[in-house]
Amino acid sequence: DRHLQTGSTALLRGLVEGQRILSRAKRGWVWNQMFVLEEFSGPDPILVGRLHTDLDVGSTPIKYVLAGEGAGTIFAINEITGDIHAMKRLDREEKAEYTLTAQVTNRDTDQPLEPPSEFIIKVQDINDNPPQFVEGPYRASVPETSQVGTSVTRVTATDADDPVYGNSAKLVYSILEGQPYFSIDPNTAIIKIALHGMDREMREEYLVVIQAKDMGGHMGGLSGTTTVTVTLTDVNDNPPKFSKSLYEFVIPEDLAIGQPGGKVKANDRDIGENAKSTYNIIDGDERDVFEITTDAQTQEGILRLKKPLNFETKKSYTLKVEAANIRFDPNSGAPFKDTATVKIAVEDSDEPPVFSKPTFVLQVDENAPINTVVGTVTARDPDVTGSLVRYFIDRHTDLERQFNVNVDDGKITLAKPLDRETDMWHNITVTATEIRNHSQISRATVAIRVLDINDNAPEFATEYEAFLCENGKPGQVIQTVSAVDKDDPIQGHYFEYRLIPEMLNNPNFTIKNNGDNSISVLAKHDTFRRQKQEMYFLPIIVTDNGNPPMSSTNTLTIRVCGCSREGIVQSCNVEAYVLPIGLSMGALIAILACIILLLVIVVLFVTLRRHKNKPLIIKDDEDVRENIIRYDDEGGGEEDTEAFDIATLQNPDGINGYLPRKDIKPDLQFMPRQSSGPNGVDVDEFINVRLHEADNDPTAPPYDSIQIYGYEGRGSIAGSLSSLETASSDSDQNYDYLREWGPRFRRLGELYSVGESDKET
């Protein structure tokens, strides 16, 4: 036993029971207020140590009390003996030490006999955790053909055991699988290349198994493993290689320019950018006839045509094609490349006729007679057989059919006269077709220029109208005249102006040449008066310089006007001098407008008066039928739109008198209030007045509206109820039957009965 004294009043003693410890292969001891205990996994309790006090002499009832971390749960104390036991599994990786407090109390009164003393229970590590690769499995890559010793990647393993105590956490790395290609440093865990000349094209991926073992790699240590997948990345170490050294193609001679004529391909064992190649024609006859491009998707070389082929001229071609890598290693000095020979045989095809030139430019004089030969187009069949050719005009380019072409020799002739002033150029398309194969057609454009001849006389540039002031001076320029000509001579226009022979000695006007194809018209005197002559006409002959010369006579109109002192024209009408009392033209127009306005007002007034005197309701004296009105509802519906006379509402003030009702027979006449108003009375006001009169009329039945029917209807099974147009008179009628029809006709029966009684009296 060892005794540890703390202070002067308390003493904790740890007792180690060697028998129990030896039986469980565990060790425990007390050192400097600390119990050290190796971690264990249970399940039986294990003695940690024993507490003892000098007060425990047998006469005093004492009790040991334990408090602190894990007291009562992980650690338990015997209250009488002071033995401390671990009741649960102790794992250093979870908690390495526990701090507890021990105290001695009176067993009967629980009064403390000593102050509490603190001590520590430390859990000693054992090698119970294997190494683990937390980040595994790993993936790494390294370029192919890397040098031996090139670093690939680094792995890391962790051990949860105590790295300070013993070798439980000391790790050593080794390769279980992956030799002889890779090696690993046992301490740093860096994986390196171990074999020279590793080729991706032979093997691209390797699986390496790495082991980490604790206890410094000695026997009895725990271990863990992980995998590292190493991928060799590609480098450009393989040249492109054509699948064959000679390619042969047969291309028809009518292959269109830009169309593919064959494909070649150089295979490259590399991948990605390292496998991309570009193709070029480096040698051969007439290399400018073909070109080769690279298909980015298939990495094929596409042989295309740059110029047309002609079987009759050249039947075969030989080319040398090169394929070279786009990317290359600068250390190699030049990119990888390979070459192949391409032989092309031209296949004869039935070609369409070929014109001697693609565009023909012809000339013809305007107004040339019909059937004049404009020019000739020629075409030939380039094939060996040499078929005859026929010519036609595409009428879509000659809608007016102004030209014809000879089908055999290609001569173009006029079908209609041409006018250069209408169309200076005519563009038509001529087709050439083989006789033996009509599907072989070629086209050529023919531009026909119409040459000018002098067939248009010059004329005034515009319709001139000159104004001459009465107070003008002799020699004053009245008007400057110029001419235009639709023709277009090569030497340009030159016009000659002169008065007609009858006007050579004109006493009023003369002309002067300005030298720029224009003339000035001058006045010879200053005695022009509007009262004497208001307007003058001056004929002028204009002649061009064509061959033959063309001329025309144009008339210049000259008006005599009144002008201000500054020469500004004010009035050119002679009436201004003969108006009475000096009225101006504006005043005359105003008076005339007033007269027209008065006439319009009179006509409107007479029209309105006539319309007012017309009766609003046209009644036929011979139509004496009684109107029977039937009401099934209050207010009219769509059937009532023709049941009343709309003329009453259209001209409500046209009825000034009272119209008697036909549907009743009153015994007294109620004269409604007479109302009259001016034309244009408000319809709403008129309706309200009539409604008020109807409401206060004692003779009116309780109907909501008045309906006037032109006839009773055809085929009525009830017959006519009217007493009119019958052989009997009112005096012969007996209306007593109306009382038998019910309460609705009682009032009607009383009215007619009253009428009969009045007649008798």
Detailed description of the structure:
The protein is mostly beta strands and 761 residues long. Helices cover 9% and strands 34% of the residues. The strands form 12 sheets. A 5-stranded mixed sheet has the order 3-4-10-9-6, with no helix packed on it. A hairpin with a 5-residue loop joins strand 31 (403-405) and strand 32 (411-414). The N and C termini lie far apart (166 Å). The model is unreliable at 1-32, 575-581, 617-626, 652-679, 725-729 and 756-761 (pLDDT under 50). It comes from Oncorhynchus mykiss (Rainbow trout). Keywords: Calcium, Cell adhesion, Cell junction, Cell membrane, Glycoprotein, Membrane, Metal-binding, Repeat, Signal, Transmembrane, Transmembrane helix. Cadherins are calcium-dependent cell adhesion proteins.
Derived from helix and strand composition plus strand pairing, the structural class reads: mainly beta
Give a quick account of the main beta sheet: strands, pairing sense, barrel closure. Answer: 5 strands, mixed
Mean pLDDT: 78
Compute the gyration radius: what is it? 67 Å
* Beta strands, count: 43
Helix content percent band: under 10%
Q: Enumerate the spans where pLDDT stays under 50 for 5 or more consecutive residues.
A: 1-32, 575-581, 617-626, 652-679, 725-729, 756-761
> What is the global morphology?
flat
The strand order across the widest sheet is: 3-4-10-9-6
Strand content: 25-35%
Q: What is the overall number of helices?
A: 5
The span between the termini is 166 Å
